[in-house]
Amino acid sequence: MLILGGRYGSIDKKTGKSYTQIEYEYAIEKAIPIFSIILSESFLHKKAALKIDVFEKDYKTKYEEFKKLVMSKLVRFVEDEKDIKLAIHTTLSDFLEEYDLVGWVRGLDILENSELIKDNPDLIRENSNLKIKLHEKTHDTDSKTQKGYDIGYFSYDKLSYVYK
Protein backbone atom coordinates (compact mmCIF):
# COMPACT_ATOMS: atom_id res chain seq x y z
CA MET A 1 0.00 0.00 0.00
CA LEU A 2 1.26 3.43 -0.93
CA ILE A 3 -0.05 6.73 0.33
CA LEU A 4 1.04 9.32 -2.20
CA GLY A 5 1.08 12.90 -1.05
CA GLY A 6 2.49 15.85 -2.91
CA ARG A 7 6.23 15.21 -2.41
CA TYR A 8 8.52 12.87 -4.32
CA GLY A 9 10.65 11.80 -1.35
CA SER A 10 14.31 11.16 -0.59
CA ILE A 11 16.42 10.35 -3.62
CA ASP A 12 18.69 7.34 -4.01
CA LYS A 13 21.93 8.71 -5.47
CA LYS A 14 22.63 5.58 -7.48
CA THR A 15 19.30 5.40 -9.34
CA GLY A 16 18.13 9.02 -9.14
CA LYS A 17 14.72 7.77 -8.02
CA SER A 18 12.95 8.22 -4.72
CA TYR A 19 13.16 5.30 -2.32
CA THR A 20 9.37 5.13 -2.43
CA GLN A 21 9.42 4.72 -6.20
CA ILE A 22 12.12 2.05 -5.97
CA GLU A 23 10.02 0.06 -3.48
CA TYR A 24 6.89 0.52 -5.60
CA GLU A 25 8.62 -0.71 -8.75
CA TYR A 26 10.07 -3.66 -6.82
CA ALA A 27 6.55 -4.66 -5.74
CA ILE A 28 5.40 -4.49 -9.36
CA GLU A 29 8.41 -6.53 -10.51
CA LYS A 30 7.69 -9.23 -7.90
CA ALA A 31 3.98 -9.26 -8.77
CA ILE A 32 3.05 -8.26 -5.22
CA PRO A 33 -0.54 -6.99 -5.09
CA ILE A 34 -0.43 -3.21 -4.63
CA PHE A 35 -2.83 -0.36 -4.26
CA SER A 36 -2.34 3.32 -3.64
CA ILE A 37 -4.13 6.07 -1.85
CA ILE A 38 -3.57 9.44 -3.47
CA LEU A 39 -4.15 12.59 -1.48
CA SER A 40 -6.33 14.87 -3.61
CA GLU A 41 -5.29 18.38 -4.62
CA SER A 42 -7.88 19.88 -2.25
CA PHE A 43 -6.51 17.72 0.60
CA LEU A 44 -2.97 18.99 -0.13
CA HIS A 45 -4.12 22.62 -0.38
CA LYS A 46 -5.81 22.34 3.04
CA LYS A 47 -2.50 21.14 4.49
CA ALA A 48 -0.56 23.87 2.67
CA ALA A 49 -2.90 26.48 4.19
CA LEU A 50 -1.67 25.29 7.60
CA LYS A 51 1.87 26.24 6.51
CA ILE A 52 2.82 22.59 5.91
CA ASP A 53 5.20 22.04 2.99
CA VAL A 54 3.27 19.48 0.93
CA PHE A 55 4.12 20.26 -2.69
CA GLU A 56 7.21 19.03 -4.57
CA LYS A 57 9.56 21.83 -5.57
CA ASP A 58 12.87 20.22 -6.54
CA TYR A 59 11.82 17.06 -8.43
CA LYS A 60 8.45 18.06 -9.87
CA THR A 61 8.95 16.17 -13.17
CA LYS A 62 10.05 12.98 -11.40
CA TYR A 63 7.08 13.27 -9.05
CA GLU A 64 4.62 13.66 -11.95
CA GLU A 65 6.13 10.65 -13.78
CA PHE A 66 5.90 8.55 -10.63
CA LYS A 67 2.31 9.67 -10.01
CA LYS A 68 1.42 8.67 -13.58
CA LEU A 69 2.86 5.17 -12.91
CA VAL A 70 0.93 4.92 -9.64
CA MET A 71 -2.31 5.98 -11.33
CA SER A 72 -1.93 3.17 -13.88
CA LYS A 73 -2.66 0.69 -11.05
CA LEU A 74 -5.42 0.45 -8.44
CA VAL A 75 -5.83 3.83 -6.70
CA ARG A 76 -8.25 5.58 -4.41
CA PHE A 77 -8.34 9.36 -4.03
CA VAL A 78 -9.03 10.80 -0.59
CA GLU A 79 -10.19 14.23 0.52
CA ASP A 80 -9.19 14.05 4.20
CA GLU A 81 -7.66 11.83 6.90
CA LYS A 82 -10.83 9.88 7.70
CA ASP A 83 -11.14 8.89 4.03
CA ILE A 84 -7.76 7.14 4.26
CA LYS A 85 -9.09 4.61 6.76
CA LEU A 86 -12.17 3.99 4.65
CA ALA A 87 -10.09 3.59 1.47
CA ILE A 88 -7.81 1.06 3.16
CA HIS A 89 -10.75 -0.94 4.51
CA THR A 90 -12.65 -1.12 1.23
CA THR A 91 -9.56 -1.85 -0.84
CA LEU A 92 -8.45 -4.68 1.44
CA SER A 93 -11.93 -6.17 1.14
CA ASP A 94 -11.59 -6.03 -2.65
CA PHE A 95 -8.15 -7.65 -2.39
CA LEU A 96 -9.55 -10.59 -0.43
CA GLU A 97 -11.95 -11.28 -3.28
CA GLU A 98 -9.41 -10.77 -6.08
CA TYR A 99 -6.26 -12.36 -4.63
CA ASP A 100 -5.54 -15.58 -2.76
CA LEU A 101 -3.89 -13.87 0.22
CA VAL A 102 -2.83 -16.26 2.98
CA GLY A 103 0.26 -14.47 4.30
CA TRP A 104 3.92 -14.10 3.44
CA VAL A 105 4.44 -17.82 3.91
CA ARG A 106 1.54 -19.85 2.65
CA GLY A 107 0.22 -22.25 5.25
CA LEU A 108 0.01 -24.89 2.53
CA ASP A 109 3.77 -24.56 1.87
CA ILE A 110 4.86 -25.39 5.43
CA LEU A 111 5.99 -28.96 5.85
CA GLU A 112 4.43 -31.06 8.56
CA ASN A 113 6.27 -30.08 11.74
CA SER A 114 4.60 -32.26 14.37
CA GLU A 115 7.69 -34.55 14.48
CA LEU A 116 9.93 -31.54 15.20
CA ILE A 117 7.63 -30.38 17.97
CA LYS A 118 7.62 -33.88 19.44
CA ASP A 119 11.45 -34.16 19.31
CA ASN A 120 12.11 -30.73 20.82
CA PRO A 121 11.87 -31.72 24.54
CA ASP A 122 14.30 -34.61 23.95
CA LEU A 123 16.77 -32.29 22.21
CA ILE A 124 16.55 -29.77 25.04
CA ARG A 125 17.19 -32.54 27.60
CA GLU A 126 20.15 -33.87 25.56
CA ASN A 127 21.62 -30.40 25.25
CA SER A 128 21.34 -29.88 29.00
CA ASN A 129 23.07 -33.21 29.72
CA LEU A 130 25.91 -32.36 27.33
CA LYS A 131 26.41 -29.01 29.06
CA ILE A 132 26.69 -30.82 32.40
CA LYS A 133 29.24 -33.29 30.99
CA LEU A 134 31.26 -30.45 29.47
CA HIS A 135 31.25 -28.62 32.78
CA GLU A 136 32.39 -31.77 34.60
CA LYS A 137 35.22 -32.34 32.10
CA THR A 138 36.45 -28.77 32.28
CA HIS A 139 36.16 -28.52 36.07
CA ASP A 140 37.58 -31.90 37.10
CA THR A 141 38.36 -31.60 40.84
CA ASP A 142 40.28 -34.91 40.99
CA SER A 143 42.98 -33.72 38.64
CA LYS A 144 45.67 -31.14 39.37
CA THR A 145 45.80 -30.15 35.67
CA GLN A 146 43.31 -30.00 32.87
CA LYS A 147 45.82 -30.82 30.13
CA GLY A 148 45.02 -33.83 27.99
CA TYR A 149 41.22 -33.53 28.08
CA ASP A 150 39.46 -33.51 24.74
CA ILE A 151 36.18 -31.68 24.40
CA GLY A 152 34.59 -32.54 21.11
CA TYR A 153 37.08 -31.76 18.36
CA PHE A 154 39.11 -29.38 20.53
CA SER A 155 41.60 -29.98 23.31
CA TYR A 156 41.13 -28.24 26.61
CA ASP A 157 44.34 -26.25 26.02
CA LYS A 158 42.94 -24.74 22.79
CA LEU A 159 39.60 -23.89 24.38
CA SER A 160 41.08 -22.41 27.54
CA TYR A 161 43.36 -20.18 25.41
CA VAL A 162 40.38 -18.84 23.45
CA TYR A 163 38.38 -17.99 26.57
CA LYS A 164 41.19 -16.31 28.58
Task: Describe how the helices and strands are arranged.
Blueprint: E1 2-4, H1 19-29, E2 36-39, H2 41-49, H3 60-71, E3 75-78, H4 81-98, H5 114-138, E4 150-151, E5 154-155, H6 156-162
Provide a descriptive summary of the structure in words.
A three-stranded parallel sheet has the order 1-2-3, sandwiched between helices. Strands 4-5 form a two-stranded antiparallel ribbon. It has helices spanning 19-29, 41-49, 60-71, 81-98, 114-138, 156-162, and strands spanning 2-4, 36-39, 75-78, 150-151, 154-155. Strand 1, helix 1 (19-29) and strand 2 form a beta-alpha-beta unit. With 164 residues, the chain is mostly helical. It is built from six helices and five strands. The mean pLDDT is 81.
Instruction: Tell me, rounded to a whole number, the average pLDDT.
Output: 81
Structural class: mainly alpha
Q: Main beta sheet: strand number and arrangement? A: 3 strands, parallel
Task: Give the strand tally.
Answer: 5
What portion of residues belong to β-strands?
Answer: 5-15%
In brief:
The mean pLDDT is 81.
Keywords:
164 residues, mainly alpha, three-stranded parallel beta sheet, two-stranded antiparallel ribbon, 6 helices, 9% strand
